[in-house]
Write a structure and sequence with these properties.
The protein is α+β, with helices and mostly antiparallel strands. It has a single domain (about 5-65), classed as Alpha-Beta Plaits (2-Layer Sandwich), CATH 3.30.70. The protein has helices at about 15-25, 60-65, and strands spanning about 5-10, 30-35, 50-55. It has a 3-stranded antiparallel sheet, covered by helices on one side. The longest helix has 13 residues, at about 15-25. About 20% of the residues are buried. Mean pLDDT is about 80; it is low at about 75-84.
């Protein structure tokens, strides 16, 4: 993905993957970036470390509307980030 932005942060990868699936249903490509080791050891899928949902900047408004959140500010911080 080029020119991606983080539209939401999550306490775990599982929650981010759910929203990724919702966006996929609307034909919006997204990526989950997480600071965990779930790729090495699947039981850590729910580990702490948080996750971020990234989308193409051009699709950010549509993605945020679908998820019912506000688009993040240019610095990546939003009132909705991590609060859902």
């Amino acid at each position: 993905m080029s020119d991606t932005i983080c539209i939401k942060t999550y306490p775990s990868r599982v929650e981010a993957e759910i929203d990724k699936s919702i966006l996929a249903g609307a034909d919006i490509v997204s990526l989950v970036s997480a600071q965990d080791f779930s790729g090495w050891f699947p039981p850590l899928l729910t580990g702490t470390g948080g996750a971020r949902l990234l989308v193409n900047e051009e699709e950010a408004d549509k993605a945020c509307e679908i998820l019912g959140i506000s688009r993040p500010e240019p610095d990546g911080i939003s009132d909705d980030a991590g609060n859902h």
